Amino acid sequence: MGNTPTFCNLPIYLLLISMLSTISNAAEKFGQENARGIAAGYPGDEQIASDARVLFADNFELGDLKQWDEPRGSIATSNEAPHAGKYCAYAPMQRGENQGGDAIKWFMPGADKVYVRFYVKFSIDYQYNHHFVTLLANQQNNRWSAFGKAGMKPNGTYYSTGMEPWFAWGSNPPPGEVNLYSYYLDMEPDPKMDKYWGNAFFPSGPGKGVAASDQRVIPPRNQWQCWEFMLQANTAPEQADGEQAMWVDGRLVGKFTGIRWRNDMELKINCLWLQHYGYDGGDPTKQYWKQDQAVWFDDVVVATEYIGPQVAL
Q1: What is the Rg, in whole angstroms, of the alpha carbon atoms belonging to the chain?
Q2: What pLDDT shows up at residue 29?
């Protein structure tokens, strides 16, 4: 019969086709979790700021915060066990004394798709915080236009998303599960209040998900870890084709689609807010407050493509 195929192999053939289709669909849905990022080409992040895709980078090795436009509150540089090199950033929070610290960096005019990767460590007995690291889209003639909008529904001329640990009203152990906390055109109001607080997106997508599910990701305390998230604007005013995603230690833990961020196509993502905020009057975690707690940040990179974890020298 030569090389003529026989029908006895048909079930195996169909099974293989089905498996390949499943793998392809999964790859399309979640992307390449272990894809080489920009950092893979710059061991130790050395010279990564010179890459044309990088919008901003700071490893804090200058021992100061002069690369940031607005350092505020308790944030400072520290030589206490950085992730790499000699220095990192340190943002303590003391009850009754401060509400943490933050540093703001604008990268005007910005881009329609932005990734930020940073290393973070929570203090060993850390509890919870109110808000954390955020990307914002501000108007070109007003770089503060996306700030101070808590509880308000965006009108399409600003938007933001932050990668934060969420306590889920005590259902999650400290420091809380990772989620994306977002303000955008079609966001939903708080069902219990006449306010538009940020909408939360929990693993694994493409929809919002729910808090404290079996897919939750609880980061460790007292350990350096790599966080990264991406924000991609929609392509037309009426199109809900915007996206966002987040990674922990290079593993994709959530990808979310179908988001309408803006109705002004000139509005770009142009600001990083390295924020450790809490112990404020509106902090919902008040019953869990300690006297003090802290986070450390290191090896921050903002880029227009996936960055990925730092690779060894």
Answers
A1: 21
A2: 43
